[in-house]
User: What shape does this take?
Amino acid sequence: MTARKDWDTYFMDIAYMASTRSRCNRRHVGAVLVQGKKLLGTAYNGAPSGVPDCSEAGCMLVEEIELVPAEGKEQVVKKQRCIRTIHAEQNLLLFTDREDREGSVVYVTDQPCWTCANMLANSGISEIVYHRAYPKDHDKVSALMEQKKLTFRQLEKYEPPASTISEVTN
Assistant: This one.
């Protein structure tokens, strides 16, 4: 008899299953909303409903410039991101109710970007659990979660189901 999965593994597996719906060429991301042990919603990243997605119309990449303090100076950091895609966390917030989110946990395959972290911080949730790191925004997102007193943790030893793994490009 195989061992029963713990709750973190169970819900992260579901987030990875949701990510398989994504048609994004750069990154497949899935998210789930959980209250207690009850699943309240799932989401994935992609273009708005009824609009061609990245696999059909290509990515809409923009370059952003951020000034980051480093060794007493400001360093210019360039980032590219696709603006065709609505992030999984944003879709999760769009399709769940505020009262369901109060005190809930979001499981997300990837650490939220700065924009998603801001939205989640103001959504009523109490915890974010993620698997893959997103180094571009890690420090400022971690600081925000600490300021908001939200539990923010990475499942480092987690192994996603083999059928859900996609190539990640930054």
Summary: Residues 7-19 form the longest helix (13 residues). The chain has a mean pLDDT of 92. DSSP finds six helices and seven strands in the chain.
